[in-house]
């Protein structure tokens, strides 16, 4: 892993499709509104994009913590952009400030943490877990 600088930024954009709506996989009574887990995925992808330039071949980063507030609804068909900024690095642990916005307003804010992992080691751990 290369040194990840505090202040590194990333973004991720998604056009909200029917499969991203809360009434599709949570509560059918809800109007067609963006599901919170999808907003979190957008934020997590923005965080990963912030540090991808600093990862070595064979490395990635997995989410280990998230603390967010979903502030406003977003209808299907809207475009949501997540943004992340590195706020701290402690060895392989990277902290981020995250936010998501649609075309009109900020829809979510919070913090996120990822751990840089060696993909081969992670694969071996998963295989061992499956075998046991």
Q: Indicate the structural class.
A: alpha+beta
Number of helices: 3
Rounded to an integer in angstroms, the radius of gyration calculated over CA atoms is 16 Å
- Helix-strand string: EHHEEEEH
Q: pLDDT below 50 for ≥5 consecutive residues: which ranges? A: none
**Helix share, percent:** 25-40%
Distance between the termini: 31 Å
What does the main sheet amount to? 5 strands, antiparallel
Question: In total, how many beta strands?
Answer: 5
Portion in beta strands: 35-45%
Q: Mean pLDDT, as a whole number?
A: 96
Main sheet: strand order: 1-3-4-5-2
Identify the overall geometry.
Answer: globular
Give a description of the structure:
The protein is α+β, with helices and mostly antiparallel strands and 132 residues long. It has helices at residues 22-25, 36-51, 119-131, and strands at residues 9-15, 59-70, 79-90, 93-101, 106-118. The protein has 3 helices and 5 strands. The radius of gyration is 16 Å and the shape is globular. The model has no long low-confidence stretch (mean pLDDT 96).
Question: What labels describe this entry?
Answer:
alpha+beta; 132 residues
């Amino acid at each position: 892993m290369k040194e990840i600088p505090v202040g590194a930024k990333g973004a991720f954009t998604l056009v909200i499709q029917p499969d991203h709506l809360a009434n599709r996989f949570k509560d059918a009574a809800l109007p067609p509104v963006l599901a919170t887990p999808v907003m979190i995925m957008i934020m997590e992808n923005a965080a990963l994009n912030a540090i991808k330039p600093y990862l070595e071949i064979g490395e990635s980063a997995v989410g280990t913590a998230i603390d967010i507030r979903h502030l406003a609804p977003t209808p299907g068909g809207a475009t949501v952009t997540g943004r992340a900024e590195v706020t701290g690095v402690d060895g392989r642990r990277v902290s981020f400030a995250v936010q998501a916005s649609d075309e009109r307003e900020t829809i979510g804010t919070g913090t996120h943490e990822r751990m840089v992992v060696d993909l081969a080691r992670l694969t071996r751990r998963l295989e061992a877990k499956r075998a046991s």
